[in-house]
Specification:
Number of strands: 13
Strand order of the largest sheet: 3-4-6-7-8-11-12-13
Radius of gyration: 17 Å
Number of helices: 1
Helix content: under 10%
Distance between the termini: 44 Å
Structural class: mainly beta
CATH architecture: Beta Barrel
CATH topology: Porin
Length: about 190
């Protein structure tokens, strides 16, 4: 099947279908939506994320808060090397947040996550080979929350994806991204 200029293999179609199913589920359990765009290692990335409300949360003094949420993402990767290959990435994992309030409408935050990824293909560009569709990923994001209930986030994320040495070659991919998020649950 071909969608626009993207060839949709049965496995890629299944991954996209799973992502759509996962993001269309029970609205009451969805606590945040995000979009990200970035790139690195000659790969451009565009992704959508759906997160839960806070699984757990706590406070450290008057101005610091911490929380843990779940995050699922579907991303499209396009190589910008001479072969211009494409793939889809589905990921899921917990995200830990440390947030410093700067007032009732502004806060600085740091998010960190370690999760799992499933790739539709194991090669992108002419020389980046992943060997396995199953990957591990971690990211670190820093940003600012703002709005009447600090419901808007804008952050910069550094993401690394690799198979953790399960099989060689293990080229992995590291990229930076701008992330915009809207939280449904008010703080």
């Amino acid at each position: 099947m071909c969608v626009g200029s993207i060839e949709m293999t049965p496995r890629a179609a299944l991954l996209v279908g799973f992502a759509l199913y996962a993001t269309s589920g029970h609205a009451q359990s969805i606590g945040r939506w995000s979009v990200e765009a970035g790139g690195g290692n000659y790969v451009d990335v565009l992704g959508l994320g759906v997160g839960t409300g806070d699984w757990i949360q706590g406070f450290i003094g008057k101005d610091w808060a911490w929380s843990v949420v779940g995050l699922g993402r579907a991303a499209y990767w396009r190589g910008n090397g001479s072969e211009n290959r494409e793939l889809f990435d589905l990921s899921a994992g917990p995200v830990a947040r440390l947030e410093r309030a700067l007032g009732s409408k502004l806060a600085l935050y740091v998010d960190a996550s370690i999760g799992i990824h499933l790739l539709s293909h194991t090669k992108i560009n002419e020389d980046r080979q992943f060997s396995t569709a199953f990957q591990f990923g971690e990211f670190l994001e820093m940003g600012v929350s703002f709005g009447a209930a600090r419901q808007y986030d804008v952050g910069l994320r550094v993401q690394h994806v690799s198979n953790g040495g399960i099989k060689n070659p293990n080229d992995g991919l590291t990229y930076g991204a701008l992330v915009i998020q809207y939280r449904l649950a008010q703080r």
